Model the fold of this input.
Amino acid sequence: MNGFGHPVQAQNGAPDENRRVKKHFLQNLSLKPLKTMTTLDPVILFFLLGLFAGLLRSELRLPPAIYEFLSVILLISIGLKGGVELSKQSFGSLVGQMGLVLALGFTLPLLLYPVLRLLGKLARADAASLAAHYGSVSVGTFAAASAWLTAHSVPFEEYMALFVVLLEVPAIVVGILLARGVSRETRWGKLAHEIFLGKGIVLLAGGLIVGWISGPQGVEPIGGLFFGIFKGVLALFLLEMGLIAAAQAGNLRKHGLFLALFGIITPLVCALIGGSLGAAMGLSIGGITLLATLAASASYIAVPAAMRLAVPEANPALSLTAALGVTFPFNVLVGIPLYHRMAVTLFGG
Done:
């Protein structure tokens, strides 16, 4: 008996048994949460690092020139990769898909505008601007979704970068028409220059064309720069996006509950529309996920510049707060895996 009145177990084999029990305990209790955490993609962790650093008012900032460089590399990389894949396809076989994607770009802002006017009680210019932002796309979200699919070994059509280019423009046109109608005051020439010759479109479309003309062998010598370090570039880009998203938190409190709910519910509805279209187009599960993600994303580069020029009376804080403060974090942290699950569940058969 021991000092507490309990029988003492035989000593033979007891140390080995205790070690086995301890090892089993550590593996099944302590290490499982750690293993689950390490499965989170590092690029997402970089976004969270920027988000929390911004919310805690850290002095962490990327120099503007570095952020500009990262954006250039990211846009060209996405375009090049899509162009290389496009060079393997018959362009005629994609015309039907391109038409459907353009129709999606025109339809989404038309669906969102009455919701913003009737439920959000927004002024005409603000509703049109916000609808245009959510009818267009986020290249950063597309890059994060592509990286997520690659990390999880989910194949997708590499020419999806072509759809990013196609979806940038229609929502801008619709947004301007919703705000102003067909007006002589609209400077369409200057606006077209802003849209089609903006940095994002030029780099993305330019990379697409270069990749298409060069093909896989032609692009191979520069692959180390544009493909080899893609994930590292994306990680730093998302670090900065986390800081920017945190900076919008104050505006979110100012503009109320509707904007927060709109920034979460709208991506879910638009993702379902985009995913359904992707399934109708015959895309793979990865392709459906990407098109759903594009439909769920909101522009924070091309559309703000165009709206500032064409609809200056619209409040840019509303659109940027919803797009960067709510929708971008939601899509990166929750939406992308959710849209993949939706694609598998609804269209996997």
User: Anything to note?
Assistant: Residues 62-347 form a domain with the Na+/H+ antiporter like fold fold (CATH 1.20.1530.20). Confidence is low (pLDDT under 50) at residues 1-14, 21-39.
